[in-house]
Design a protein that fits this description.
The chain is an all-alpha fold and 444 residues long. It folds into three domains: 2-215, no CATH class; 246-311, no CATH class; 353-442. Helices cover 67% and strands 0% of the residues. The protein contains 22 helices and no strands. Helix 9 packs antiparallel against helix 12 (194-215). The radius of gyration is 39 Å and the shape is extended.
């Protein structure tokens, strides 16, 4: 569905009105001579009714399914027209091929029909209800328990079959007489994919029932299985509380946009811009009465002068800021506790350091006065010894001891007789002995 919406480029969406693909489809429809003007009008109306997909909005995809299902033969004919007009090779690109394969696949058609039913009977009614009523108003209508009971009923084999009759159980909680949808009549008409549609519906509704039960647990009475009775006190507290989180999500997105636009803007400035945008202050000032605006501006200026007078001079403001920093700053840590922690840490470090030094002494002692033991080792073995000793923890090194720096570098030196680059073995042995003796002398 996303690829198809991208392909046909819905012309009614933001930023899509002048898209070439969308215009090409409409021009092709207008130029068809094999269909009547009534059919052309129906195709244009159906095509324009599709909503643009912005972000990851599954319900938009699902609501578009009934329109795409209506125009499957038309879109396939349009793709064939595109293929024939391509030069020099009559080959569709990846997006066009993917859309064509989907429209010809029975599994995709089954998913399209199931998504259209879910959108019409569950998803869109729930969204409409959340936007039209507050959550207490929905609770008074037994909305939460009704949706849960419908999901439980429709998640069975027999219940899923009832959806083909388009019962509109949830939609009737919002509208007394829902309008008939001509597109949905063709969606639920008998088709070879009916069995697959039932399987998809049962799986989605079973998962939906579990999710809705977790979401509506605070609204449904476990004893009566109906919504809690709304008391007058609760109604007074939450009468204006919305049932959705559109305001919070849009406000967070707007704050992020303002902060990206003006990174150094203070919190007060960001708040003012967000409130002006959400309250539609500019539109109000442009459309309202000039006399009302004048009185409003006079009130705002008077309040601003009063606030400035209360704030005092600049020195008073700085003094209050300093007092607040002292008042709300973290308490000073206990000196005795910090001293005890430092002593414990220093003791552990000294112990670890002594242990590491003893370990290194035991490791290098056999080679300090035994040049033959080192001389018998091959060049690779010497390189291995150097690499191992260089991995000694830094805690084993005392200040001023640079014995690791005196080790020769593996693979470096002058070229030998065979032309390979390396260090002469005798020089390497002498370097190792000198470094080890220097380390032992420094760690006594």
């Amino acid at each position: 569905m996303y690829e198809l919406s991208k392909f046909v480029c819905v012309q009614e969406g933001k930023g899509m009105k002048n898209d070439q693909k969308g215009q090409a489809f409409m021009i092709w429809v207008a130029g068809r001579k094999d269909i009547s003007e009534e059919v052309r009008t129906w195709i244009r109306v159906t095509h324009k009714a599709m909503k643009p997909i912005v972000g990851n909005r599954y319900f938009v995809n699902h609501s578009n399914c009934k329109l795409v299902y209506e125009l499957v033969p038309t879109y396939l004919a349009f793709l064939e027209y595109i293929k024939e007009t391509k030069t020099p090779n009559k080959v569709l690109n990846r997006l066009e091929s993917s859309v064509k394969a989907g429209l010809e696949d029975p599994k995709v058609i089954a998913m399209m029909r199931a998504a259209a039913i879910l959108a019409t009977e569950i998803e869109l009614p729930v969204i409409y209800a959340a936007k039209k009523f507050s959550y207490l108003e929905l609770q008074e209508k037994n909305f939460y328990s009704t949706v849960f009971k419908c999901l439980e009923l429709w998640s069975t084999e027999d219940g899923a079959k009832q959806l083909f009759a388009l019962p509109g159980s949830i939609l009737r909680l919002i509208y007394e007489t829902p309008k008939e949808d001509p597109y949905m009549k063709r969606i639920v008409a008998p088709h070879e994919t009916d069995a697959d549609v039932l399987t998809i519906l049962k799986g989605c509704l079973q998962k939906g029932a579990v999710t809705w039960a977790a979401h509506a647990i605070g609204h449904i009475d476990p004893d009566t299985k109906n919504d809690f009775i709304v008391t007058p006190a609760a109604k007074a507290r939450g009468a204006q509380a919305a049932a959705d989180n559109d305001l919070s999500e849009s406000s967070i997105a707007l704050i992020r946009c303002v902060q990206d636009w003006a990174k150094n803007l203070r919190v007060e400035g960001t708040e003012a811009l967000v409130m002006a945008k959400k309250n539609k202050t500019v539109q109000y000032l442009q459309e309202g009465n000039l006399g009302v605006h004048s009185r409003l501006f006079a009130y705002v200026r008077r309040k601003a002068r009063e606030d400035l007078k209360k704030a005092g001079t600049k020195d008073d403001v700085h003094r209050r800021i300093a007092e607040d920093k002292v008042k709300y700053s973290a308490p000073a840590p206990c000196t005795e506790l910090l001293a005890k922690k430092r002593a414990t840490r220093d003791e552990a470090r000294a112990k670890n350091k002594a242990t590491a030094v003893d370990f290194i002494r035991q490791l290098v002692q056999p080679y300090v006065n035994n040049e033959e033991a080192i001389a018998k080792k091959s060049g690779k073995e010497l390189d291995g010894m150097i690499a191992a000793w260089k991995l000694v923890p830094p805690i084993a090194n005392r200040e001023g001891v640079t014995w690791l720096a005196s080790f020769p570098k593996e693979g470096s030196g002058t070229a030998g007789k065979n032309g390979k680059c390396g260090i002469v073995k005798e020089d390497k042995v002498k370097s190792i002995l000198s470094a080890l003796r220097g380390y032992l002398n420094a760690t006594r």
